[in-house]
Design brief:
Blueprint (H helix, E strand, L loop, with lengths): L1 E5 L5 E4 L10 H4 L20 E3 L7 H8 L20 E3 L8 H10 L5 E3 L7 H8 L13 E3 L7 H6 L8 E3 L22 E3 L8 H11 L5 E3 L7 H11 L13 H6 L6 E3 L8 H8 L7 E3 L13 H4 L5 E3 L8
Parallel strand pairs: 1-3, 3-4, 4-5, 5-6, 6-7, 7-8, 8-9, 9-10, 10-11, 11-12
Antiparallel strand pairs: 1-2
Helix pairs in contact: 3-4, 6-7, 7-9
Length: about 325
């Protein structure tokens, strides 16, 4: 694991203590920690699996480093050892990571399984590089976790991520310029364990509900804060997912029913989902006995129902019900 942090003017500010532990190759231990530090040195490293240069302020050598990996001809072999070992790459909050950098990464880091490009200013073009094969290269379709939150995008680009069937963790929270998903429904990832889509107020409630219905059986983390989800669509999603009759959910289920229709959720965030009623929230909670973290800030849960949460979530460790007004 190699973690680097840079000053705005480019000097190396900090090297994570984890890099002082035994390292994969002698070349790694010889990296200078004194400014000035050239990112080009990273290309000489071998055996590095996890590279974290998040929060590196504008620094031209980051772009130069990745640009040097782009051969004039697609068939020209690369001599940088790092591209053959990296499985996890964190570029979050690197303000000068461009769509072109994402294109290079998609074609050269073929062992990549985890990618974080949150808040990099990536646009629709960069998103499509991630999910769309080009030049005969399958791009990053083997990714297991992807964080593209807080970037620019479009409905088409988000929908293209459906091609990434190996994903188990996806964060598309707070994407900008996704004005409508009207023509791109059925955002379904059947293998997801972690799904974060908070702040996508532009998505229709029905689209969110269909995504929940398709993924609810595998999800362990579900964050929907500030989404436009409403009770009717959430109830329908649960009825679809668990093949229940869409009838009055007020009656308690039997223990046998609960065991036959439980989710794997351990974290649920419905903060600022004010159109989801208390009844709908409990319809989900009664199927989620493994929840440890529950965030219901400014949700529709009734204050008099808060004390009942422990009955449905006996493993609860963290609960946030700040500013809850409540709806029946």
């Amino acid at each position: 694991i190699l973690r680097l942090r840079m000053h705005v003017k480019g000097g190396l500010d900090e090297k994570d203590e984890s890099t002082s532990q035994p390292l994969p190759s002698p070349s790694v231990s010889s990296v200078s920690t004194s400014p000035p530090f050239s990112f080009m040195q990273v290309l000489t490293l071998s055996g590095i699996e996890h590279l974290d240069i998040s929060f590196s302020s504008p620094h031209r050598s980051i772009i130069e480093m990745f640009a040097s990996l782009s051969p004039p001809l697609p068939t020209r072999p690369l001599h940088s050892p790092i591209v053959h070992s990296i499985t996890s790459l964190n570029l979050s909050h690197c303000e000068n990571v461009t769509d072109g950098v994402i294109d290079i990464i998609s074609k050269q880091f073929l062992r990549l399984e985890h990618l974080n490009i949150s808040a990099c200013g990536i646009t629709e073009e960069g998103m499509l590089y991630i999910s769309t094969p080009s030049d005969g290269v399958k791009s990053m379709l083997r990714l297991r976790s992807l964080d593209v939150s807080h970037n620019l995008s479009s409905a088409e680009a988000v929908h293209s991520l459906k091609a990434m069937t190996t994903l188990t963790s996806l964060n598309i929270s707070c994407l900008r310029n996704v004005f409508s998903m009207e023509d791109y429904t059925d955002l379904i990832w059947s293998n997801l364990e972690t799904f974060r889509m908070g702040g996508l107020v532009c998505l229709e409630s029905n689209d969110i509900a269909r995504t929940i219905a398709s993924s609810i059986h595998t999800l362990k983390v579900l964050e929907l804060g500030e989404c436009s989800l409403d009770s009717a669509h959430l109830d329908h999603a649960l009825a679809t997912a668990f093949h229940m009759k869409n009838e009055d959910e007020s009656e308690l289920q039997t223990v046998a029913d609960l065991e036959a229709s439980c989710t794997s959720l351990e974290l649920l965030n419905l903060s600022w989902c004010e159109d989801v009623s208390s009844g709908s929230i409990f319809s989900l909670l009664c199927k989620s006995p493994n929840i440890r973290t529950l965030i219901l800030q400014k949700s529709g849960i009734l204050s008099e129902h808060v004390s009942l949460i422990a009955n449905y979530c006996p493993l609860i460790e963290e609960l946030n019900v700040v500013l809850c007004s409540g709806k029946c």
